[in-house]
Amino acid sequence: MLTLGNMLVLMLLATGAAWLWHNHGLREKALARVKQHCAKLDLELLDENVAFKRMTFARDGNGRKRLARIYTFEFTVTGEQRHPGTITQFGPHSATIELAPYPFEIKTQATAEVIEMSQWRQEHKRWRP
What's the predicted TM-score (pTM) here? Predict the structure, then answer.
């Protein structure tokens, strides 16, 4: 027969299991958001993983302090160096993703063409008074 003490222990275990399941779902949402962010910036997420760092009170976009989960991850640009990053989540919603400074290449699409001034003047001669 179940006593009141046994029922209390079972309820605490069920609550703990539900809390762990809920946290796992939030971690998966953080991982998906980090993958999306890294793909947009052409970065490689290392280990395909985010790690829970801590729970703390942080300010949201409206300036109110709310309970936030902070996860850490590592990314690379060149495949040689690891750079740290963090994602802050308020429940299932991502607040900020912060990346450590990392090297990147500036990609230019257009190439400059040098034109001689005498050639330009001949081509635009009709516009001169």
Answer: 0.68
